[in-house]
Amino acid sequence: MSDETTNGAVAPAAATEEQGATFSVEKIYTRDVSFEAPNAPAVFTEQGQPDLQMNLNQRAGQVGENAYEVVLGVTLTCTMNGKTAYLAEVQQAGVFGLAGFDAAGLDAMLGAHCPNVLYPYARQAISELINGGGFPPFYLQPINFDALYAEGLRQRAAQQEQGALESGTETAGNA
């Protein structure tokens, strides 16, 4: 018993075994930020309905034994009467500790859970850039990263199935 406890606390190794998979947020930071208003100040006098387009991307990579960096990129482009009013870009990043996950669980954490953690920070940064650029406040709507991840899995499975069918057709044609 004295091997497992120190002053009544469970030793870290024993705690890890009992809990199984572990997740921690090690660091959250802004990796890159950009704001452009190429047609200012003339754009401030334009009349019309703004057209907003959002591009969302993410990437993940291992940076240590159980440490992964996830970068969530958000680009918001506003045009008015065919002219770019502003372009706001943020790459919000985080280093996450992930241990004890199987391959599918790790993929889901990196593809859905970590972006869910990062998105509020990216959303705030985009909002501050737009407001600081002299434009009316704009708040990005919440995003369901679980649904995006599930759709990505479905698309990967369909591509793999299509690739297998094409390989089977080529093999049959060569016989």
Give a written overview of the molecule.
The strands form 2 sheets. The protein has a 4-stranded antiparallel sheet with strand order 3-6-5-4. Helix content is 39%, strand content 35%. It has helices spanning 12-19, 103-132, 145-174, and strands spanning 5-6, 9-10, 22-36, 51-62, 67-80, 83-99. It has one domain (20-149): Roll (Bacterial Protein-export protein SecB), CATH 3.10.420. It contains 3 helices and 6 strands, in the order ββαββββαα. The protein is an alpha+beta fold and 175 residues long. The radius of gyration is 23 Å and the shape is globular. The model is unreliable at 1-18 and 171-175 (pLDDT under 50).
Content of β-strand:
35-45%
**Count of beta strands:** 6
Query: Overall mean pLDDT score?
Result: 87
**Helix-strand makeup class:** alpha+beta
CATH architecture tag: Roll
Write the layout of secondary structure elements.
Blueprint: E1 5-6, E2 9-10, H1 12-19, E3 22-36, E4 51-62, E5 67-80, E6 83-99, H2 103-132, H3 145-174
Antiparallel strand pairs: 1-2, 3-6, 4-5, 5-6
Give a brief rundown of this model.
The chain contains three helices and six strands; from the N terminus they run E-E-H-E-E-E-E-H-H. With 175 residues, the chain is of the alpha+beta class.
Record keyword descriptors for this entry.
175 residues, alpha+beta, 3 helices, disordered C terminus
